[in-house]
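User: Please fill in residues for this 459-position structure.
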């Protein structure tokens, strides 16, 4: 189909937005031209208008994408040529997203935003302490209840009474979803782990692990749940919560030596294995990092490394790592990507090979003095596409720089300055931002004190 004919169909839809026959013509035309994202956006418009066939296609696509296509597999962009932005006049929090939609919590309501069309998709009222989580549909944990909302329209599908407040929700791949609890409203703070049914018997708790105890980190992959608590790593089966193995002791012995405590800090897992991030506190708020990778089935250590001593070496003159990079580590298929700041105030990305924990590449990005003041949280943000690492740096009150690096070599693809359109000074300072890799684009969700900006970089 020619571009001229496609533009004609688009103009026809604008002229007659309530005519489903014309919209379906455009959907079929977009499918023939391979414009997948725009096709889904038109399907979502039809679904919101009550078209049952479109609703089924949208729901099945998002469920399939959520289960089988993690964000770390999105096709990256090679250059950023255009920036589109939308500003909300409120600070929205608790963002979660799929490849088409970002869902946020506003003041007593939940807002879903269509990342392709850069338009609000739907908005529904929400109760106190509402936290939306994506699991095919949107699961909303509120005070005293859970709700399941259709991801395409926001319509309520199911609801149940529950005193459990969800902090995270994982699709284990077994049909059982794993919920990490923030608290039990009846018993106070207690961060256990539960297996729940969110399909047939919505909200039914199938098993519990470590009820009413604190967990430091939790993740799930390949039918297993990994919980870090009391300085020990526990693996349980996602299907029934049965114990699999427990690991305790120093992950990286060289990091453990010295007068400061060292312990596991963060867990990351995929089908390949479990990566443990180890931190060692030091003076002046700095930390040293160690990493290890364990077999998911047995807990046996494949490799471990002390970054400062073994990876950076004399070339870096023993420079420490700071800026709390522990929670910024990301897993790619063949590498672990880590943001670091050295004693020369240079922000860099470090890639370790997952075969043996050896250094693959290191890429300096910027001087720290150019980055926003330490009082602002989330000074940087790291996200992975299929073959690219995106890194966001906060430069000023309303400015970001987004850099893209090739995952295989660390070479820079592009660097793009983005001035966010939040009105100043009423919007206040930029509190943090998230990068969301899309298919052929990159979305930015930036939260100010009194506003939220959603921007999109397109190649």
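Assistant: Residues filled in for all 459 positions:
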């Amino acid at each position: 189909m020619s571009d001229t004919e496609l533009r004609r169909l688009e103009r026809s839809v604008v002229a007659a937005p309530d005519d489903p026959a014309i919209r379906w013509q455009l959907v079929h035309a977009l499918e023939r031209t391979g414009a997948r994202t725009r096709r889904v956006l038109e399907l979502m418009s039809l679904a919101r208008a009550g078209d049952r066939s479109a609703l089924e296609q949208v729901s099945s696509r998002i469920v399939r994408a959520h289960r089988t296509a993690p964000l770390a597999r999105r096709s990256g962009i090679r250059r950023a040529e255009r920036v589109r932005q939308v500003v909300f006049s409120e600070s929205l929090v608790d963002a979660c997203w799929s490849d088409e939609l970002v869902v946020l919590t506003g003041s007593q309501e939940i807002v879903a935003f269509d990342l392709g069309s850069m338009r609000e998709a739907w908005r529904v009222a929400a109760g106190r302490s509402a936290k939306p989580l994506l699991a095919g549909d949107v699961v909303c944990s509120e005070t005293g209840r859970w709700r399941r909302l259709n991801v395409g329209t926001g319509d309520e599908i199911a609801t149940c009474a529950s005193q459990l407040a969800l902090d995270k929700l994982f699709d284990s791949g077994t049909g059982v979803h794993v919920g990490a609890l923030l608290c039990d409203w009846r018993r106070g703070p207690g961060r256990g782990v539960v297996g729940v049914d969110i399909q047939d018997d919505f909200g039914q708790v199938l098993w519990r692990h470590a009820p009413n105890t604190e967990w430091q980190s939790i993740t799930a992959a390949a039918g297993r749940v990994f919980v870090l608590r009391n300085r020990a790593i526990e693996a349980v089966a996602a299907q029934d919560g049965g114990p699999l193995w427990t690991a305790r002791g120093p992950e990286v012995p060289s990091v453990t030596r010295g007068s400061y405590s060292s312990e596991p800090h963060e867990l990351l897992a995929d089908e390949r294995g479990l990566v443990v991030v180890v931190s060692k506190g030091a003076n002046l708020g700095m930390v040293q990092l160690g990493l290890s990778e364990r077999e998911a089935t047995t807990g046996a250590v494949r490799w471990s490394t002390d970054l400062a001593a073994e990876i950076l070496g004399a070339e870096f003159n023993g420079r420490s790592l700071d800026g709390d990079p522990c929670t910024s580590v990301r897993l790619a298929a063949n590498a672990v990507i880590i943001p670091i700041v050295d004693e020369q105030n240079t922000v860099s990305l470090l890639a370790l090979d997952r075969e043996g924990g050896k250094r693959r590449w290191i890429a300096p990005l910027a001087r720290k003095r150019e980055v926003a003041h330490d009082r602002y949280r989330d000074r940087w943000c790291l996200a992975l596409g299929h073959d690219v690492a995106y890194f966001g740096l906060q430069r000023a009150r309303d400015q970001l720089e987004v850099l893209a690096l090739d995952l295989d070599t660390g070479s820079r693809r592009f660097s793009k300055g983005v001035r966010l359109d939040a009105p100043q000074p009423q919007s206040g300072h930029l509190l943090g931002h998230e990068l969301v890799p899309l298919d052929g684009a990159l979305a930015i969700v930036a939260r100010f004190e009194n506003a939220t900006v959603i921007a999109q970089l397109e190649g």
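For context: The chain has six helices and 33 strands.
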